[in-house]
Amino acid sequence: MDITYSSFDEMPSPEVLDEIIKLHFHVFGESDDLKGRMKGKPKLRIDIALDDTAVVGYKIGYALNREQFYSWLGGVHDGYRSRGIAFALMGNQHKHAKDCGYRTVQTQTKNKWRSMLVLNIKNGFDVIGTFTDSKGEPRIMLEKKL
Question: Can you tell me which residues the record assigns to a coiled coil (predicted)?
């Protein structure tokens, strides 16, 4: 199995987008008009991991402002976890953000997604706060200096 990586600075082809949406649904159990939500994000960046033509991982982010990049959504198919794919996608995203002049990357996660929380902390993120979202779930805010 050779995993390859690709990136998009705009909406990908409909075929790739459909693969991302299917994977998002597989990972999170919902897709909540992901395509429409992506279209409204400034300076959208999409990084994907491919096994042949199948999208097995993705990381989506966008500009918060000139200095801050927001790492928004990401996931890896459960059949491909523990192979360094999430780590590689994060590295690709952060390199892009740094190369574009962003000074920090911000993200949010939920306590129930422990593997993502641990990955973020292992990769230099600091917890900068917490809040309760509109659904009453606690969220953890993290930031990394680039």
Answer: none
Q: Of the candidates 66, 31, 40, which has an alpha carbon nearest to the alpha carbon of residue 58?
A: 31
Residues 31, 24: Cα–Cα separation, whole Å: 6
pLDDT tens figures, 31-59: 778 999 999 899 999 999 999 999 999 99
Q: How many angstroms separate the CA atoms of 123 and 91, rounded? A: 9
The rounded Cα 67 to chain-centroid distance in angstroms is 18
Domains of the chain: 3-107 (3.40.630.30)
C-alpha distances in Å from residue 126, one per residue of 60, 118, 140: 20, 11, 10
How far apart CA 7 and CA 96 sit, in angstroms, is 10
Tokens of 53: 């033509």
Q: Identify the DSSP state of 2.
A: -
3-state SS, residue 84? coil
* CA–CA distance, 35 with 37 (Å, rounded to integer): 5
What is the rounded distance in angstroms from the CA atom of residue 135 to the CA atom of residue 87? 29
Residue 41 DSSP label: S
Distance between CA atoms of residues 28 and 31, nearest Å: 8
